[in-house]
Write the structure tokens for this entry.
Amino acid sequence: MLKVFIFYEEKNKWIEEHSHLLYHDFAAFIDEDTKLIYLWNGPKSTKERLKKGTEVLYRLIQQFAETDFQIKKLNKKIPSHIKSCLENYLEVAKKEEKIADYQYSQFFTIRIHALISIISLILPIIVFVILASSLFWDTLGNDYIISANNYNNWLLMAFILLVICLLLFIPQLIIAIYEYDKAIIVFSSISMIISISLLVYLQQGIFLFQFQESSTPTLYYITKIDIYLFLLLISSAIMLFEIPNFIKTVNFLATYKKFLF
């Protein structure tokens, strides 16, 4: 049976490790079957840590070990089972070393940013689809007809999704500031301004359109040209951040895909 322990220099003690090693660690692989202890000093570890850890280990063996263990320092010729275990434990360290070459330095910021980017890419499209559903309202001559209740629900759904979109841009901006991603800082800021502008615009409710004289408190008549101009304005505003968002999301996923799964 093979166990792995890491020497914590601050506490001057050995603690069992079950998942990973980092390059600054000093570790002991204890093979209980062969009564051998293999010492591994990471490339970023120090001679001082090696010295202290070895001394503490010898004391522990003398005080508590029921059988004598032989201590060996790992060199170029590493036993296969130790090598396999070491490689598995170093997976995290290898990933961290690779990620250091990228602008985003943390796994969680990469994953959160990717998730936010995808959601914020989809939501504006859904908003436009909801608003564009007005093209399928009942018509009478040059007017679209919709009940007051459906009109309010129509705007409310789009408004709620835009609020969610705005709330997503806030953590995206925070992450960009943390990772010092200037392009995303600018993009997120502009997207927030556009989202707020759209929210203020949609908040006008019944004052968005000039209802026709035939309208009643429960039934609205809106000219088709007003709907067309409304959708043109909304689509133009959405495209201002949707196109850059699409480009940056595709580039980001292509760059960091190996760290996302």
Notes: The chain has two domains: 2-99, 107-259. The first helix runs from residue 47 to 64. The mean pLDDT is 88.
